[in-house]
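call fold(seq) -> tokens
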Amino acid sequence: MDFGLFTTWNAVYVGDKVPWDPEYHGGKLLEEAAYAQNWKEVQAVEDMGWDYIWLGGGHFSTQGSMDPQPLLLSAAVASRTQRIKIGTSIHRPILKRPGDTASPRALPHERYAFDQLMLEDPFQVAEQVAIVDQLSHGRFLYGAGGRTRGNDAKREHFFEFLDVLKQLWTEDHFTGFEGKYYKYPAFYESYMNIPKPVQKPYPPMLLPVDSQESFEPMGTHGYRIAIGGGTSPHNLRGYTVLKNDVQRYRQAWKDAGHPGDPTTVVRMPTLVAETKAEAQRLTEDLMGLARRYYSGRAGIGSTDAGSASPETVADANLFGTPEEVVEGIHFLQEHFSADEIMFEVNWTASVPRDVVMNTMQLLTDKVIPQFK
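ret:
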């Protein structure tokens, strides 16, 4: 079983208090300190022997994430590491057609990005992914999402975006693309091309499941999927429904004739302490801050696929002692065919950094060895 760190490249403030902490009194955002601390955590999981690091983030929300460009950051991480695999979780291309509007669920920064940013071009994304894979010597995984929840047309648009990428990566000479949403002529001259990834036919692709309707299409198209705290066992729909969803995904994969076995990555809020008493104290502190984060009181909340509300996380998490976390991972293996856990050790960007580092060390020493 594989294990990865999920990070949104969180901010650091004067006094080490986040804006949704009642004890915050206007401390300045320390950008250089934040980058230094996040590099320290990246280097730690590289040295600890973890399998992956997953870079999440978004535009215009530095309180929750200082990573508006996960592909650019992936290239930087690739240049400063040697072994660990690097994935985006997620790169979110701007996809819209004339007349499209932002989802009513969108937060202000998400709405601004949708309304103001130019469309993401598949050619440039294909070039960027290929460069990251080359710089990392084949250690890159492309995780992408299209905010397709409840919208079949957007899901179709997103899948076509990915089809353009795959054709660019695999063809020696681009023969043109004629789709519903994208139309490109063939390259005019034989010398025209884009850089190709190291991994063939292209880097592994991971898509977060953002709705119950997405499970079967993901399997039919042959994509690895990620489910998260918001779609985890014991949530409002119940783990039995989710288990059936994953089974439908796996069956759709097999029915489509894809080689190999479909895989499931589970992203889970994680906090580990040596004793039950300490784990309980830290959990209570974190849940209090998370409720403020999601309430809008100086926080931002989240509508990302895989993100988890406080109500969900109260029942679906990997909070506890190492022994309790091991038990929780066994549950995820048994019921959801999970072959990778994406540990979100700074859920809602509210966990003190010393607690983050201690959680990572306990996972390394007492949890991960149980599954290797």
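The longest strand covers residues 264-272.
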